[in-house]
Amino acid sequence: MQYKTIVLELLQQRPEMHDQLRRHRLLLPAVEAYSMELKTSHEAWKGKLALARPGSDPGQMGAIPPFPEEPGVLRPCEAGRVLKLAC
Q1: pLDDT digits over 18-45, tens only?
Q2: Nearest to 28 by CA among 65, 79, 63, 66
Q3: Which of 38, 55, 60, 67 is most buried as measured by Cβ atoms within 10 A of its Cβ?
Q4: What residues does each domain of the chain span?
């Protein structure tokens, strides 16, 4: 899965945040931090599903679950504390 692509597309849906990160040369660090967080969260979710459904096909457990908040919400202060200017 291309976590960086997913994160970059989400940031591009928020032009103000994307432009602010780009102007302050924080876009790449932000994309890397968010993508690592997304990957970690995704792998943890797959692990929980595997425990809950031991006989299930692991290939079918790869879908990212719905976010508990609005889909596509990026919380600037939580992704590796990269975006201090937006906190």
Answers
A1: 999 999 999 999 999 999 999 999 888 8
A2: 79
A3: 38
A4: 3-86
